[in-house]
Amino acid sequence: MIAIQRKYSIERRDFQSAGQVSSSIKKIMKQVGVNPEVIRRVSVASYETEMNIIIHSNGGTMEFSIGSDYIKIIALDRGPGIDDIDLAMKEGYSTATKDVRELGFGAGMGLPNIKRCADDFDIQSEVGKCTRITIGFNL
Amino acid sequence: MTVKELQQQLDLEILAAEKEIEATVINDVYIGDMLSWVIGNAEAESVWITIQTNVNVVAVAVMVGINCIIIAENAHVDPDTLLKAEEEKIPVLRSELTAYQIAKRIDLGN
Ligand SMILES: Nc1ncnc2c1ncn2[C@@H]1O[C@H](COP(=O)(O)OP(=O)(O)OP(=O)(O)O)[C@@H](O)[C@H]1O
Ligand SMILES: [Mg+2]
Questions:
Q1: CA dist., res. B67 & res. B39, Å (int)
Q2: Which residue on chain A is closest to B65 by alpha carbon?
């Protein structure tokens, strides 16, 4: 049973939106009374995912769904994809440019943060095409 | 210790969400300028001391549950950041002191 489902589109380099999608997702979770500890984990994972799409991709979408016993986020972007996923998952690895580092991004901790917060995590990428991240949480 | 007590003690400049400072209690302190590092390590209900001032600091605070931001060393703050902090009810305070000097004066009572 899916209680709520939303799909958001995300533009590349849109730093001023500052986590708008994640804020919306957080509001929904609060409204339906999700446990605060889970809200925090989902919020962290969705914010890191959203900012990665803004910073590193050509734009994409995030889908959020919440059922009676799980929460799921599916992020799909329009490339450029990730060549070496094992490397991208390493703490401290980042290809962030100087301008985004000045904003405080580029620690290379985003993907590790997502994985640590999630109960299920899957990342797949086709270079030149897309990156797809699926994140699941048990309620 | 409340944010208001700290504000008075250190004579911090209040930049946003003044109404919230009296009720906001400091349970922990985190210092950092790399956003994902803060996201991964700061506890909820912390005060966050930083020199990072773009609008994304407010988003990070909201996601993590950080309840007050203190800008150290009088760093210039973007107007967008203050608007968003006001909207999200997260106090933003500022000092000419360094992060170390600010943190040193926060008494968590433990
Ligand atoms: N959606 C994406 N499309 C293409 N590359 C990506 C995407 N997400 C992450 N990457 C690559 O993986 C690297 C590591 O990502 P991660 O989120 O861990 O760190 P970061 O975004 O560089 O810095 P931080 O998240 O700490 O601000 C990125 O620097 C980038 O090279
Ligand atoms: Mg990232």
A1: 13
A2: A40
Query: What ipTM describes this predicted complex?
Result: 0.94
Q: Which domain holds residue A72?
A: 2-138
Give yes or no for a contact between B68 and B47, defined as CB atoms under 8 angstroms apart. Answer: yes
Asked if residues B49 and B68 have their Cβ atoms less than 8 Å apart, the reply is no
Interface size between A and B, measured as CB pairs under 8 A: 74
Rounded to the nearest angstrom, the distance between the alpha carbon of A104 and the centre of ligand 2 is 10
Q: What domain range includes position B97?
A: 3-105
B93 in any annotated domain: yes
Q: What is the mean pLDDT of chain A?
A: 96
Give pTM, 2 decimals: 0.97
Among all chains, which residue has been given the structure tokens 């990070």? Answer: B60
State the Cα–Cα distance between residues B3 and B93, nearest whole angstrom. 9
At B52 the three-state DSSP class reads coil
